[in-house]
Amino acid sequence: MATQVETSGWTRDQMAQRAAKELKDGYYVNLGIGIPTLVANHVPEGMTVTLQSENGMLGIGPFPFEDEVDPDLINAGKQTISELPQSSYFDSATSFAMIRGGHIDLAVLGGMEVSQDGDLANWMVPGKMIKGMGGAMDLVAGVKKIIVVMEHVSKNGDAKFIPECTLPLTGKNVVDMIITDLAVFQRPDHDSPFRLIELAPGVTAEEVRERTTAAYEQ
Amino acid sequence: MQKIYPNARAALDGLLFDGMTIAAGGFGLCGIPERLIDAIQTAGVKGLIIASNNAGIDNEGLGKLLRTRQVKKMISSYVGENKEFERQFLAHELEVEFCPQGTLAERMRAGGAGIPGFYTKTGFGTQVAEGKEVKSFDGEDYILERGIFADLSVVKGWKADESGNLMFRKTARNFNLPAATCGKVCVAEVEEIVPVGSLDPDCIHLPSIYVKRLILGAPYDKKIEFKTVREREMA
What pTM value is reported for the model? Predict the structure, then answer.
């Protein structure tokens, strides 16, 4: 992983920790694969947050102990997990009715590109990555609040928060908050521009400006 | 009416033909109808159009039918972790219709419920929307998606009674339920078949009306794609 940035900033785990600050008591939350999954480790003490797995489960438990591993119990990333006393199971159509029907409070997803108008691209690199969108298009279309967690720049140093996405879109005008290793951007609604609301320790607003091509408020 | 067949080959007898559309249950390798997939492979039918969330992995699940070049087109949401799939796709030997996961589940559910199309926000403004009707409801834009009407459904359940009532286990339910409803004929394989009256009618996930043919597929050697565990703290 390209975690070596010249400036200081947040690690992957610290980005997840920052995203966890957006959790609220009673929330039903869907976490994407990668850094978003780490958010589960930072749910504040005393807060009840129920995690949804789009393959058909509410109430995801921690990874199982070796002797509890069950091939019939996996998360959307196909990793073995465990259940909680309050867990429930359901089929994929019911699962996505929850997602598309606006019943999930928050989704945290990874991103390849986010545009200044809140478009998200995270499912395909033409000619290179052929995997598919999975449930990402449903999540961005139906979940009340969308947080994208991603490195601020690509491995080549290119900006990822940009004027217009160059990759095929996952959703148009869907992102509410962006958390990178350098900063946090937020907008109050889908008609407003993003605003830089927080800097990672040791990072200056100028550094963020230099590594961002999207227009945003400061 | 005897629904129980001695094996997968017998259960699929007379149902398979070239160019048919098959809806398959499963998520990754979890809850896949592996006995029925094996029997489809042995039968050798070709030019298949398969609606399934995933395409298996190399030589597991539907990956077996890709290897034998029996599949013409996949309708799927996620096809990672499958080199043979990638090779055939890049060589234009295999058609793929990428379908968002929730849209795929709903297309199966809709097909099973006699609904030929529905509007959804999912995919609006993306390449998924290309060529599809857009309609505005209360100021929001939606795209028209079609229900899936398959010739055959193949699913994997946990327990069935002799009449075909089915229960699934944990996250192995996934696409098995909507897939079971959208085929003209549904063939199910299960881990255990129990006498009628043994299952609580309040706990049936898939009522018997959908299950036309049934086989006992056990014993199963269930595969895990990514085994993740935590350590027990030392006492």
Answer: 0.96
